[in-house]
From TrEMBL:
Start and end residues of each HTH gntR-type domain: 27-94
Domain of life: Bacteria
CDD domains referenced in this protein's UniProt entry, alphabetically: WHTH_GntR
Annotated organism of origin: Pseudomonas oryzihabitans
GO molecular function terms listed in the Swiss-Prot or TrEMBL record: DNA binding; DNA-binding transcription factor activity
Protein name (record): DNA-binding transcriptional regulator, GntR family
Keywords per UniProt: DNA-binding, Transcription, Transcription regulation
Keyword Cell inner membrane: no
InterPro entries: GntR_C (IPR011711), TF_FadR/GntR_C (IPR008920), Tscrpt_reg_HTH_GntR (IPR000524), WH-like_DNA-bd_sf (IPR036388), WH_DNA-bd_sf (IPR036390)
Length: 236
C-alpha cells in the first residue's frame, strides 16, 4: 500500500504549485488543503487506489488533522476520494466503464454546446480559443504538464461557456475533475506534450471555416481520439 509521502517529492513544496504560493490568503485552511490535494490528483501525482494518510499529510503540511478531514470530505463529495471502513481513504480508481461514461457524456455535452454556440460565434471568440491553444503549446515547450492540462480543460470549458446555456456550463462543471484527470491520462499517451497541445489546431481551423458540421466533427474526432488513447491505456 502506497502512502501519501511517496507521491509528493520534497521539491514539490518549493515550486509554484506549493501550498504556500498557490493559495490566496482569503481561503480557509481546509480550502487550501482541498486545492492542494486536488492538484495532486489531477496532475497524476496521486494515483488511483493510492492511500491518503491523514497523519502523514498533517506532518507534511505541518497542520492539524481537522482541515485535512474537511478537505477529504469535500473531495469524497466530488467523487475523487473514497473511504473504506477500518481501511482508510483512497484515491478513486477509474474503471474502463467510468471512462466510457465520462467520454460518452462529454461528447454529447460538447456537441450540444457547439450547436448552441454556433449562431453566436464571433471572430473574437474564435481568437480566444486559438489563444488558449497557443498557451497550451507554450506550456508544452516549457515542460509544464500541469499547466498544459489546465489550459486544455479551459479550452473545452470555454466551448461550453460560448453556448450561453447555464445548464450546459453547470453540467460541464459537475464533471470537470473527472475530465481533467482523464485529460492527464490522455496526454501521457502522446509522444510528447507538444503533440498533445497541437492536436487542438484542427478544431480551430474548423471554427474558422464557420461550417457548423465541420466544427462538430472536429471536436467529436478530437474527443474520440482521446477516448481511444485512454482505452489503449486500460488494455496495456
Amino acid at each position: 500500500m502506497v502512502e501519501l509521502h511517496t507521491a509528493v517529492p520534497s521539491q514539490f513544496h518549493d515550486d509554484h504549485d506549493s501550498l504556500d504560493t498557490m493559495i490566496v490568503e482569503s481561503k480557509s485552511l481546509s480550502e487550501q488543503v482541498t486545492e492542494y490535494l486536488y492538484k495532486l490528483l489531477v496532475s497524476g501525482r496521486l494515483k488511483g487506489g493510492q492511500r491518503v494518510n491523514e497523519a502523514e499529510l498533517a506532518r507534511t503540511l505541518k497542520i492539524s488533522r481537522n482541515p485535512i478531514r474537511e478537505a477529504i470530505r469535500k473531495l469524497e463529495e466530488r467523487g475523487l476520494l473514497v473511504s473504506a471502513p477500518r481501511r482508510g481513504t483512497f484515491v478513486r480508481s477509474f474503471s474502463a466503464t467510468d471512462i466510457e461514461d465520462i467520454f460518452s457524456f462529454r461528447m454529447a455535452l460538447e456537441e450540444f454546446a457547439l450547436r448552441q454556440a454556433f449562431p453566436k460565434l464571433t471572430d473574437a471568440s474564435i481568437d480566444e480559443l486559438a489563444a488558449i491553444v497557443e498557451q497550451m503549446e507554450a506550456a508544452a515547450r516549457a515542460g509544464k504538464e500541469m499547466e498544459l492540462v489546465q489550459r486544455d480543460i479551459s479550452f473545452h470549458q470555454r466551448i461550453c461557456e460560448l453556448s450561453g446555456n447555464t445548464q450546459t456550463i453547470r453540467a460541464f462543471s459537475n464533471i470537470y475533475a473527472e475530465i481533467q484527470i482523464s485529460i492527464t491520462l490522455v496526454e501521457h499517451r502522446f509522444e510528447s506534450l507538444e503533440e498533445a497541445a497541437s492536436d487542438h489546431w484542427p478544431i480551430i481551423e474548423a471554427f474558422r471555416s464557420r461550417d457548423e458540421e465541420r466544427i462538430v466533427a472536429a471536436v467529436r474526432e478530437h474527443i474520440q481520439d482521446s477516448w481511444l488513447r485512454i482505452k489503449a491505456a486500460y488494455s496495456d
